[in-house]
Amino acid sequence: MNTITPSSLLAMRTQILQQNSALQKVAGAAAAPAPAQAAPTDFSTTLKGALEQVNGLQSKAEAVSSSYERGETTDIAAVMLAREQASVGFQATLQVRNKLLAAYKDIMSMPV
């Protein structure tokens, strides 16, 4: 059984970063240059944006459902679509949370 040492982890990290930069160079050469480059975002900003998007979907679904219940809207398909979009977004968020917690537990249980 192979044991994972800090030096082997650093070597794997370096190898992954080198492969990533090589892939980015290849992808950059194949794609046309973008007129304006967006600033890189960190993980917390991306996660916050995704959570805000899911919250927006849930708010929209609630508003459409309330509108239907009041009789202002008669399109049941739009109501069901909005509710399903909110449900799928929420389920995806739960799966991401579960994967993050599992990764955190794995990292915390690693011997130093």
Automatic annotation (TrEMBL):
Transmembrane segments: none annotated. GO terms for biological process: bacterial-type flagellum-dependent cell motility. One of its GO terms (molecular function) is cytoskeletal motor activity. It comes from the Bacteria. GO terms for cellular component: bacterial-type flagellum basal body. The keyword rRNA processing does not apply. Its main location: other. Keywords: Bacterial flagellum, Cell projection, Cilium, Flagellum. NCBIfam families: fliE (TIGR00205). PANTHER family: FLAGELLAR HOOK-BASAL BODY COMPLEX PROTEIN FLIE, PTHR34653. This is Flagellar hook-basal body complex protein FliE. The gene is fliE.
